[in-house]
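Researcher: We plan to redesign the surface later, but first we want a full-length starting point. Tokens attached.
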């Protein structure tokens, strides 16, 4: 099995390298409006944003920032297949402008924007991130009533393009082999993820602007896009990240046997990713083996508790809870090779070769 992975250095407000109805799943984390680290980016896209911030008009800046993001949402409406899923990691922002402190509800604005474009909202996920503050509040300290709670969670907003679910041919191997274990389903499809921790990714950049790129990466943990690829796509599907950054979604797509496309404005991120490609085979193998090991531990615990599991997996020496798990077969990456001559200017592409997970 082979998958292809493209990264286009371009503006995601026009996904011109993608045809209509060519994407099965979107997994992304956009720049968050009203978070100061993104002010310069938004102002570059629309100078009026900088003017509003300088004037202390937070609402005008908030609206204008979301208008830039909504140009990307317009393109997602075009490229995502009917029944395809969009998973969008976003956090709200707190900020003081013109001596007034308030929250800017990014998740609510994104919900409105996707509904207006015909996407059906599905139940979302909250995951807790480390707070940047040692204190649990801001404002007047120990004296009520003018203190404010800190934001320690982010949203994974989930949308389906249109009212109908995707359809597959009966008994499709690429769907049944991509099944997840019963206990994974129970953990992954919870609306609160307490077992995912935020992390800073160490970008190996030998560049003058490396410090700035590290500050701007704002990467989410690999566990998040990995889970979402497993939950909402099948082997061979195409996953898009229009805000590619350090390429975490591409790593997840490679590890899960999906194709991927990323859009990124900063070409230096591609240089960093190119250097880490050699580690992907080992990463994909370790992730798959860890899942299988955790499942075998689950089976052992269930049997110790007196539960009898009726079914056996076809490809691994383990019991499973349901019929739908029997065909599970993990993929590991055995090689990643660069592809020459991308179809789009500034495109970088890779071919990943996958084999069934080795248990050695």
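Model: Full-length starting sequence:
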């Amino acid at each position: 099995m082979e998958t292809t992975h493209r990264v286009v250095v371009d503006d995601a407000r026009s996904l011109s390298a993608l045809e209509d109805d060519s994407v099965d799943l979107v997994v992304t984390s956009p720049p968050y409006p009203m978070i100061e680290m993104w002010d310069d980016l938004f102002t570059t896209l629309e100078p009026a944003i900088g003017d509003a911030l300088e004037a202390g008009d937070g609402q005008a800046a908030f609206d204008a920032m979301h208008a830039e993001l909504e140009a990307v949402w317009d393109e997602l409406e075009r490229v995502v297949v009917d029944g395809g899923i969009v998973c969008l990691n976003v956090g709200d922002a707190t900020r003081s402008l013109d001596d007034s402190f308030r929250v800017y509800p990014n998740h609510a604005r994104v919900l409105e924007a996707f509904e207006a474009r015909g996407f059906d909202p599905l139940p979302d996920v909250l995951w807790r991130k480390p707070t940047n503050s040692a204190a649990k509040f801001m404002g007047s300290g120990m004296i009520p009533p003018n203190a404010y709670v800190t934001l320690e969670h982010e949203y994974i907003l989930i949308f389906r393009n249109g009212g109908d679910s995707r359809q597959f041919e009966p008994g499709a191997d690429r769907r049944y082999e991509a099944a997840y274990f019963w206990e994974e389903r129970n953990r992954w499809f919870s609306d609160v993820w307490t077992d995912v921790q935020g992390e800073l990714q160490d970008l190996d950049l030998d560049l003058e602007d490396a410090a700035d790129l590290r500050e701007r990466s704002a990467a989410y943990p690999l566990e998040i896009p990995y889970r979402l690829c497993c939950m909402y796509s099948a082997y061979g599907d195409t996953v898009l990240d229009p805000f590619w950054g350090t390429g975490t979604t591409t790593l997840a797509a490679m590890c899960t046997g999906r194709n991927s496309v990323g859009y990124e404005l900063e070409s230096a991120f591609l240089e960093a990713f190119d250097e880490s490609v050699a580690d992907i085979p080992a990463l994909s193998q370790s992730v798959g083996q860890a899942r299988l090991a955790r499942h075998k531990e689950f089976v052992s615990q269930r049997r110790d508790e007196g539960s009898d599991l009726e079914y056996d997996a076809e490809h691994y020496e383990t019991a499973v809870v349901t019929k739908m798990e029997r065909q599970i077969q993990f993929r590991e990456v055995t090689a990643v090779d660069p592809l020459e001559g991308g179809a789009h200017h500034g495109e970088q592409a890779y071919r990943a070769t996958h084999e069934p997970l080795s248990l050695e």
